[in-house]
Amino acid sequence: xxxxxxxxxAIPRQSLxxxxxxxxxxxxxxxxxxxxxxxxxxxxxxxxxxxRIPVREALRQLDAEGLITIVPNRGAIVPALxxxxxxxxxxxxxxxxxxxxxxxxPRLTENDLEEAAVVLRRYETELxxxxxxxxxxxxxxxxxxxxxxxxxxxxxxxIIRNVNNSGERYTRLQLYLTHGIARANQEHHEILEFCxxxxxxxxxxxxxxxxxxxxxxxxxxxxxxxxxx
Length: 229
Description:
The protein is mostly helical.
């Protein structure tokens, strides 16, 4: 981790905690801060020219997101991405999400579908900016959750939400590492169109394939990156 104190490393003084978290999140997802790295509050504060307080709060935020792990007596560590975790999370998603979509499609309103389209357009815009990595996973979940919103299965939805929160790091990383933006956009539009047509079988089949491909492509990209490292 480059701890240069050059002026260009300084961050704007808006919400310092959010700014530090954004910087660290981007470097972790890009691999600039590698797996296994220890994040030292003093070093980060020097690099970004801030006090330790926003750094400490930013690390807590990233710990809650699952991007880092705060270990007693060791501090903040960037955990290794586990192929087993990737496979498990995407398998759970591929099983549960088509099921809840099946129940939601007949009840989706035109307003729901239009709102999903608006989120999708915003998502496409954000994907053009690699420095907006944080918003990728959030907008991806917002799009999917709108399509699931009429299922009237609150317990089901809670499980899916928790799985997506656990896997948001993987969702952003999958798009970044695999250059899968074009395919993801196309499939999102096709899923939305199936929903408009009330084609439950077509929408659920494509959604399952969409999730399975994302998980498999991420596993392969990680294996290639580790082999090259």
